[in-house]
Write the structure tokens for this entry.
Amino acid sequence: PVMEFSSNNVDFKVEKAPSDELTMQTKELDITNVSSLPLTALLSLDYPFQLLCSESSPREGENPTLVPRSEQEIYMGIGETRTLQIQFDPAYKDDSHIRVIEQQLTVRYKEHPHVDSIDLKGQVFFPNLDFEKMEIDFGCILNDTEVTRYVNITNNSPMDVKYKWSFLIDDEPVAVFEKPEPVESPRPESECSGGG
């Protein structure tokens, strides 16, 4: 059996802003039987990816009811093309950390031991920051002296991140420091004037 795929990979990318809800994402993949014989393909994948399959034949004028499944068997005639609907659940974890999951859609054939696969990738981005250090040790500080420590903060998401920070003592904030807005200073007027 020879199956032709419209793409060798299906990628999902979700950017989750604080006010957004994570909803199911769906993409299509066309498969075509380009062999000289009909074939039966057995498709399988794992959650958080699923195949949307028609539950039954719709009545005239109605859309088919689609049901998510991890496996599907399809018969394909010579030269027949089918459109698969692949669904990704970006809420497969209950946290707000950036995550990437990579799996495969596996295509096996009843008529032959050959196996094909399509790479699946799901990326979920949150406005996260990475801190170079999670602890800062100031050591012993003499009275009436100052010690400065630097910590690099990196925005590792493709989104803008707005943040504020505070010192915590016994899990209670002591002071809140917000990033100041840049202030534009007025331009001085030139003392020179054109004469003539």
About this structure: The chain is about 0% helix and 45% strand.
